[in-house]
Amino acid sequence: MQSVGMIILQRLGLGLVTLFVVSVIIFTAVNMLPGDFAQAILGQGATPEAVEAIRESIGLNKDPFTRYFEWLTAALQGDFGTSFAQVSFSEFAGSDTGKGGIGSVTDQLVPRFKNTLFLASVAAIISIPLSLVLGILAALYRNSAYDRVVNVSTLSAISSPDFFLAYILILALAVINPLFPAVSNVYDGLTFWERLNASMLPALTLTLAVTAQMMRMTRASIINLLASPYIEMARLKGLSPMRVIVKHALPNALAPIINVIALNLAFLITGVVVVEVVFVYPGIGQLFVDSVKIRDIPIVQACCLVFAATYILLNLTADIASILTNPRLRHPK
Amino acid sequence: MSVLLWVIGIVAGLLAGGWAIRALGRAINLPSKDANIYFRDMPFLASVGLAVATFAIAVVIYFYFIAPTPFFVWAVNGFLFFAFCAFIFRLLGRNVGTEGSKKLFRQMPLTAAFGILVIIVYAITSIFAGAIAPYGQEIVFAKANLLPGGDPATGGDPAHLLGTDQIGRDILSRIIYGAQNTVGIAFITTCLAFLIGTSMGFLAAIKGGWVDQLTSRIVDALMAIPQLIFALLLMTIATAWAGSNGFLVTVYMVLIIAVLDSTRVYRLSRAVGLNIVVMDYIEAAKLRGETLSYLVFKEILPNAIAPLLAEFGLRFCFVFLTIASLSFLGIGIQPPLADWGTMVKDLAAFINFAQFSPLTAALPLMAAGAIALLTVGVNFVVDWMLQKTSGLKE
Fold first, then answer.
1. Residue A296 gets which letter from DSSP?
2. CB contact under 8 A, B372 and A156
3. Cα distances (Å, whole numbers) of residue A319 to A94, A256, A323, B21, B213
């Protein structure tokens, strides 16, 4: 018999181990680059002296293990190094590179991560209640015309690429009916409503993408329970179908629903890449893609780590939440 | 703010409308007894549903007949056309062919028939792209940026029905060749992922012990990073290795996505394999002294084919979407190969001309729609297959 606290601690420990492994993978992958950072910064045709000097300055002459642990300890303190795109400038400016000065990765990452979180939360606030209501209704009126229409349209929404949904929304709500801006021009100093207005289209795109998944899961997990004897009992007592589903079926279907909500939140954070690029939304996904294109390795590394950490954290939350809502999971056979 | 007010207003109107419909139905004494009982017992939500449906039909009629918007008319026409084609196709399947195939078509929902039809059309287009397309995918014509429509008065050219792109390549030909490149590459990648995933998964299921532990932990670690993010990270490195060689970038992309996707296949085939390995006939085969490859391909694979086939459809969609997203972001399939994801990115700016030239604005949507149509079709078929095999009748 384990206490709930112990289980949560165990899961947290497991999550930390996963995060550690992930950081090793990212570090190893980046170290598979041809040549090394120094050559990547300077490009081809750099003199050997210059390469050697850079190597010295960012500590590339040390062995991989030392470098990995230095990178990890720095990253844990919120210092992800210096962006390649700015390294030369900060050298000229005479600032201390890599210690949160001009052009440090952290400086670029933090405001953009906040923007992405804002976008993801707007999408989550719209999509979670919507998908729960639609899912419960679909379970209530299963096999009706409503259920079929919803089934076909959610399946289509799930299978369409994000940018297809995004461009349809742009066409309908920005170009033909100019309700929202097609380009999300988000910057500091916007009021909350202006910010909401600017990020409405990307948020709606994400909503379309995740609502379908969550709704189908809600419907499926409620319907799964409807054959149980206690639901039959509730029905025979003469309760209304709505009450049977909301009061009796929903609490027991909560574990898979919470699970799928958390997974979709993880998708919201990581799946924003394409959507942010379509709407030129200044979030972490946009930064990530731009850095991938110019091979700005420190930023790519940092973004990857942030994405993976969010992903692991949300999966962990899903795990713990389903254990808390379903006591049976606390006693593994 | 005004949009929010509109939304609230419409929702309130629908609720009131539902209530009014029910009240009306109860107040009037309808000729048939059933209709009276129907309205008496009608729950509020059902009446709201009725109101929503009426409202939706009214909106469709308004935008289709009274104030036609080109895009909406096209969408409705396309929808009706596809539904009609699927219906004809199913009708054909029900009356032509062997007894078995006729029976299959009789039980088939319209969505699945639509999916099968789409898959067949895409397969034909991708195999015979060279014969169907009017021009080659790499030919650059003198006239760049020709508008679609083929009417010289509006800046088009009858020789190029959908116009030409920024550097003068025929867009229609590129869309047709896109079927070959995008679908073909996604198909190869999925096959590769399945080859890796199933062989490793079955191996883990048979061997157990440290082999199972090792492969499973590696897969766990790979799955801890979101797939698109990991693919982007690895593509950064791959592009550095490949340099300016576009073909090599595409090959690396296929390998990277195949490996990343094989983790999901591994999970499934290991789970399926574990259930099969405990069967007596496997025991018998082991005692006969059969080799490992015989066990995997002759004993386990035939018994795992049904779930793997459904998974193949889903994986294909996923791979296809990942490749399209990568290409859309500019790091996937490289030019000169025509590819839908890249085309969407290149043509996206045209969408702003929707007010002046709807056909031009529809170009990026055509390429994106070509991607969506296939994934939707495959998903419909997989959905039907899963329901059929698992007996999820409810």
1. -
2. yes
3. 48, 10, 6, 46, 22
Which chain A residues touch B325 with a CB distance below 8 Å?
161-163, 273-274
The Cα of B59 is separated from the nearest Cα of chain A by a number of Å equal to: 14
Please give the tally of structural domains in chain A.
2
Are residues A129 and A64 located together in one domain of the fold? no
- A253 and A144 in one domain? yes
Express each pLDDT in B113-157 by its tens digit: 999 999 999 999 988 888 887 887 777 777 777 777 767 777 777
Q: How far apart are CA A50 and CA B307, in angstroms?
A: 57
Write the CA distances from B385 to B113, B305, B314, integer angstroms. Answer: 12, 13, 11
CB contact under 8 A, A295 and B1: no
Residue A166 lies in a domain: yes
Tokens of A218: 């809600």
- Give the largest Cα separation in chain B, rounded: 81
Question: Do A130 and A241 lie in a common domain?
Answer: yes
ipTM of this complex prediction, to 2 decimal places: 0.85
A252-311 pLDDT per residue, tens: 888 788 888 888 888 777 678 889 988 888 888 888 888 888 777 788 888 888 888 888
Q: Is residue A236 part of a domain?
A: yes
Angstroms from A304 CA to nearest CA on chain B: 7
Does residue A274 sit in the same domain as residue A142? yes
Task: Kindly list the residues from chain B whose CB atom is less than 8 angstroms away from the CB atom of residue A193.
Answer: 1
User: Do A71 and A150 reside in the same domain of the chain?
Assistant: no
Chain A residues inside the 8 Å CB shell of B329: 273-274, 277, 289, 292
Contacts of B369 in chain A (CB under 8 A): 164
* A127 and A260 inside one domain: yes
CATH number of the domain within which A221 lies: 1.10.3720.10
Q: What is the span of the domain harbouring residue A259?
A: 108-293
- Distance in Å, alpha carbon of B136 to nearest chain A alpha carbon: 26
Residues of chain A contacting residue B221, judged by C-beta atoms under 8 Å apart: 18, 21-22, 25
Is B328 in contact with A171 (Cβ distance < 8 A)? Answer: no
Looking at the structure, do residues A279 and A140 belong to the same domain, yes or no? yes
Residues A277 and A154 in one domain: yes
Each residue's pLDDT, cut to its tens digit, for chain B (394 residues) gives 677 888 899 999 999 998 888 888 888 877 777 878 888 878 788 888 888 888 999 988 888 888 887 888 888 898 899 999 999 998 888 888 788 888 888 888 888 999 999 999 999 998 888 888 788 777 777 777 777 776 777 777 777 778 777 777 888 888 888 888 889 999 999 999 999 999 899 889 888 888 888 988 888 888 888 888 888 888 888 887 877 777 888 889 999 999 999 999 999 999 888 888 888 888 898 899 888 888 888 888 888 887 888 889 889 999 999 999 888 888 888 877 888 888 888 888 888 887 777 888 888 888 899 999 999 999 999 888 887 776 544 4
Instruction: Give the phi and the psi of residue A202 in degrees, each rounded to 5.
Output: -60, -40
